[in-house]
Amino acid sequence: MKFSGLGYLIKEGIKSIWTNRMMSIASIGVLISCLLLTGAAELLTINVSSALESIGGTNVTRVFLEQHITDLEAVHIGDELARIPNVEKTVFISKDDAIKDYQDTLREDIFEQLTGEGNPMPNAIDVTMTDLAYYDDTIAAVLATEGVESARDTREIAQKLTMLNDLVGTMSLWIMAALVLISIFIISNTIRMTMYSRRFEISIMKSVGATDTFVRIPFVIEGMVIGLISGVIASGLLAVLYNVVLNTMKDIVALSFVPYSQVGLWASLAFVVAGVAIGALGSVVSIGRYLRKEGNELLGW
Amino acid sequence: MIEFRNVSKVYPTGTHALNKASLTIEKGEFVFIVGSSGAGKSTFLKLIMREEVPTSGSIIVNGMQLDKMKRRHVPMLRRTMGIVFQDFRLIDKMTVYDNVAFAMRAIGARPRAIKKRVPYILELVGLEGKGDRYPSELSGGEQQRVGLARALVNNPQMIIADEPTGNIDPEMSYEIIELLSEINKRGTTILIVTHELDLVQSFNRRVITIEKGVVVSDTVDIQS
Description:
The complex is a heterodimer. Chain A is of the alpha+beta class. Chain A has two domains: 3-55 and 158-299, no CATH class; 60-153, Alpha-Beta Plaits, CATH 3.30.70. Helix content of chain A is 72%, strand content 8%. Chain A is elongated and about 95 Å long. The two termini of chain A are 32 Å apart. Chain B is an alpha/beta fold. Chain B has two domains: 1-80 and 195-224, P-loop containing nucleotide triphosphate hydrolases (Rossmann fold); 90-154, no CATH class. Chain B has helices at residues 41-48, 74-78, 96-105, 111-124, 140-152, 170-185, 197-203; strands at residues 2-10, 16-25, 30-34, 56-61, 64-65, 81-84, 158-162, 189-193, 206-211, 214-219. In chain B, a hairpin with a 2-residue loop joins strand 4 (56-61) and strand 5 (64-65). The radius of gyration of chain B is 17 Å and the shape is globular. The chains are: A alpha+beta, B alpha/beta.
């Protein structure tokens, strides 16, 4: 196609958004809502995954040693544990390190009493397993080792979080799919209305020999511009909303959240690309059948 | 050039619009197609424009075989013809100039070519100086001239006029047919569907009469 013709078609597409501004605004609104909901679902998944990681992963079990075990003995026990089949590695956690985990949650005076001599924490070893399927056997071997007092079973929490993560992941996928379909439907409806209002022009274009592609382009551009506008606005709104929610949640839940700066660029890019793609797809869906009509049938006479 | 060989058209409703019609219209001819309403004239035009496909028989228009034509080739066929409608079919919100330019833009013409061609065609149909008017500001005859300018602007081999004088007064009707005669002198084939027999008689051209889907008479152009 000649470039000059393309310029004309792009202008026509953009003009049409203004001509049908009420429908355009409605589709932009719906598309923004859909993109935001999808983005929220995706960000929830990312944050649950991140929380899961911050809890210490799924295959690390903290093993507590008997109170009398010294640091040196603890290191030896660590080496011994590392030789148990299915144990990938062991990390020694001294009682001083262990109490530091509570520094933020305890009052300063209480924390000070608990450091040094008054430290109630036993020495511990973080045991990383290769395969959680052999958890029971491995933990039995660990507990049978001399000097080992007990092991914290993080499996249940990890399992619950993994389940939640999977559930959120699956649900967000379905929500996304449903919202994309709704968006395509809404856009295709808007474009169909535009086509209807321009059916007279389309019939003249066809009668003078305009190709289907030529007739189609302004509508596809209209859909894409609606998608682009929605994507940009949704990106801005997501940035604001995410930070508001994050600041509120930080005070309520003691979990580390993914900062917006880490996901913002990707989210914005995804919104814009998804918006434009949904816009284009919505238009193509609505035009196909219309283009097959001829003459008075096209005009509905 | 138009060639119909044993062309029949039966609509899904069961209506037999054309029944084994055969005729040939050579390049550069000026032909009136007449017949009462429902005789098959509209179907005849729709078949030429490839808005409909024949149930049987073969159709060749401007060197293209229509009965076997793929949909994607239809635009190329339509670029060889200019169509004039009874109801003018002008876009109200566009000026005269833009209505004519629209036909060029629709086939991807360059702005420079449009700027050069549209004023020339407007002058040819006697609308010089009226390019910035809107259709509603023009008389019926003038509106049909815009329709004719639009049909001519892409330099087609053939003009198909479907009841071009149906919505304008008799004097203007005569002028429109005169204008089409002038265009015919430049080598463009002219096909006019009409039921105004007085007008047909005053021009003394080839007349094809269709009744009940059959070509019942075909008088030879006595001028050429």
